[in-house]
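Suppose a colleague, Dr. K., hands you the sequence of a protein chain of 412 amino acids and asks what its three-dimensional shape might be. Before reaching for any lab equipment, you can write down a predicted structure in token form. Begin with the sequence itself:
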Amino acid sequence: MSETIDNDNKLHFEPSTIETIDKSVLNFVESLRLSTVTNKGFKPVPIIWGTAERAFQVKKNKEIRDGQGLLVLPIISVRRTGFTKSSASPGVFQGNVPEIDKEDGGSLEVSRVLYQQKTLKFANADALRLYGQKNYPSPNPKVVYQTVTAPMPVNVEVMYEITLRTEYQQQMNDLMTPFVTTPGTVNYVRLKENDHKYEGFIQADYSSSDNLADFSGDERKFETKIQLKVIGYIVGEGKNRQKPHYSIRENFVEVKIPRERISLREIPEHEFGSYYGLAGMPLSVAQTLEPFPFRFSNIPASSFFGSSGTSSGGGSADVSGGIITTENLAQYLNEFFIVREVLKAEGAALPADKRTFTTTNNFKFNSEQVMVNGILQALGATFDYTVSGSNTIIFTEDVEIGDHIVITYIKG
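The predicted structure, expressed as tokens, is then:
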């Protein structure tokens, strides 16, 4: 995820796995806070997860076994006994929503919050542009939201067996009663783990057994098994998932498309940089550019829909209207554009000061290109030459007899 999460509490989303459902069942049993009377007084009954390795249980829950390794009663164990994926399951999520075919995936929207930081940037930018002041009170339609999406949850049915083991009948009565009365007159219970919630149904049959009938010397034992059916859901593929468990996306608030003037058959005026990204600039602003108006060509462009200045025949085109067409372009170039006029030929005599040369025609300032022996010269007193008037080039260093100097310019 490329974006920094603004609010971890609102946007965080934990995947739902098989272990998440297991933990929700264990949380439910622990929430009953089952206790009973033992030879050590009224004590909480230990709850163990029945599928854990015995070596692990011995190390973690030392109090559940005596010195000979036998279980100390009363005790409650929980284990998963069945797992079913049923497409007809009456779970929360129905149908199928495929994941978005992108790297970060995601199918369903689970959270949507305002991204204040970016929304504020758009509001400040518009306020500064329109009113010249940031944070100026004004409507802001450019609201950015962060949306969290998760993979499509898959409904599953999981069966659990809760086993109650006691030494006395009264202890068993104490432990069984909460399972009967907590759901009320129905068998439905709500299971929770993190932000996930599942539906549990305590089955009606409480399977009980004991060893009272064998009259052996073994210690008396009572056992009751309670079946719990959980309708849950699984999100993602757990540790084998290659895409993120959830993804964060932001909405579009503004779409900008560069204007394609050629595609739209638009040919704006050539003056003041219309072809150079300055289209629409007021004349007063353009005049502040230095130098002006010689920054761009002064030759007017032809209107795409104009007919003035065109020629219907194959003869010479009319240039009196000041309109450039494909027929009169060469004539305009001949009239306005001077290419490689020789200021000094190689071996020709030098002027008295060896620096000052005059062109045949006046030229527009900053339209000239001066070449000395094929090398382009730079304009400026600290560079190669300066301009005096509208037709004089003055070099900053003496020109040698063997130099060849040419100039290209637009007539002034």
